Amino acid sequence: MNKLCRWPVTPLAWQLISFILFFGIWELAGRWPISFAFPPFSETLLALLGMTADGSLPKAYLSTLQPLIIGIVLCGIAGIGFGIGMGLSRALEWYSLPIFIVLQAAPMAALIPLITYIYGIGLTSKVLAVVFLAAPVIVMNSYKGIRNTNPSLIQMCRAFLGTRRQEVMKIILPHAAALIFAGLRLGLAMGFIGIVIAELLITPTGIGDLITYHSSVADYPKMFAAITSIILLAAVTIHGLERLERRLFPAEIRGS
Amino acid sequence: MIQIAKTTANLLISAALVAGLAGDTHAQGKTKIRYALGDVISIDELPLLIAVERAKARGVDVEVTAFKSEEVATQAVINGQADVGQGTPYAAVQKVNLPIRFFYQLSALQFFPVVAKESYKSWKDLDGQEIAVQGRGSGTEAIMILAAKQHGIKYKNVSYVPGSQVRALALLKGNIKATILDAANKNRVMKEAPDKFMILPLGNVKASDEALFATREFLDKNQAGIRIFLEELTKVNRSINANPKWVLDERKKLGLLKDLPAKMEDEILPFFEEAVQNGVFPNDGGAESAPKNDLEFYALSGALKGENLKVEDFWHLAPLKAALANVK
What we know:
By secondary structure, chain A is mainly alpha-helical.
């Protein structure tokens, strides 16, 4: 056992080793090549740096992030509000819960092209694509957060003759905050999926345009660079939010 | 128990032998071509479907698979999952480190710039205005850029809306006011709202809309099969050019596209009559003219880069010449 621990490896080192291994296999697979359309990691990295330097990638993100942010802000306000409403009111729950369960299970990639029939091909359709994917998660988490409040705490509030307003503001909402925040984080992850699908299926703009265009002119390193960049951005953003969540809410409230 | 094991083993060996023999017969008697189509199979694919049936009768089994887009169909050829692709992926042919060559022009470009009458009445009115085309570096964009140059105008913005049917719908709903459509969708728009839209005149564009491409290796190894397939494609095009109604008769005779809605059935003849009038289907598979026209056009569209582009780096005309020698 002592022999095994002779060279202690920190978690950061493990992460680095994992990345080196992954990118190394990618480089080998591209050089072999597993497909003539699969570029090595080094070429993809150079393409990524080139696209950042010539401004095409930042310009694409300005276009992509616009509907994503609008969609998430809309879901953040209306979705959380609606989820809390569903948690507090049996009538609203009865009317709305089945809709959100169906929306969560529905294959959205098949539904997104239908949005264009009603809302055309502009910004509205892309915002709606983000909302359709993000809203069910955000609403359902907010709803569950409210419903999962510890009943003993509510009973305690009532025993001390707390009003319904005090019960909601001082017990239910603070208790549900962690789950609501987790819903926002998961909603943002779904929003990233929504915006990329919308930009690939509705009209190619922003990062979707870079993927479509470089694929059509067979510039595979740039196509992979665009795909990698959106994956990286989504992963880093979601990871950052997860860390913020851990800092804001103690483990006993997060339920982990 | 031992008897059961023996019987099972015998059955397995027999099955393997039968499968082996069947495979051998298949290899000797028939050529199989895995054909990648980057579009939904519809009325404009009827000439291909007729030629496929006729080639099958001559021992060449052409298996058509419809992919979501031309890019996916091209990838299938690059990765070896398909033998022959349909489309005009000139950029891929130029960039991919694999000798892929075009060898037959199926059809020439046929597109129509359609505008909302209340906003625009001529090319000059489009100066400083927004237009919608299929995609960046697409043939439709090249046509619109070419027209702008010819008329001395400049667009304010070019938006990319893939799918002629999507652009037609956006035009009908008023989301866009100027775009470029294929024949079927142009007819649809003009039929649904003839008073609201008009077609702007366009000079003659002779580049390929759909061409066939494959790896040099496949073309060299399957010369006989490819020659038969090209003979049938050429014969079909010539028959359509002689009489567009021939398509209707052949469709009925061969039982093609049986589940086509009645509304679309009525569109078959006008589509082919108009295409024949515009010289869309070449009688000679493009022969010498298609490669030169394509290189000029796709260099202008931005799909092809560099100067002094050579035909032999993109086209391999030997299979077509062999086929044309057999077709009178």
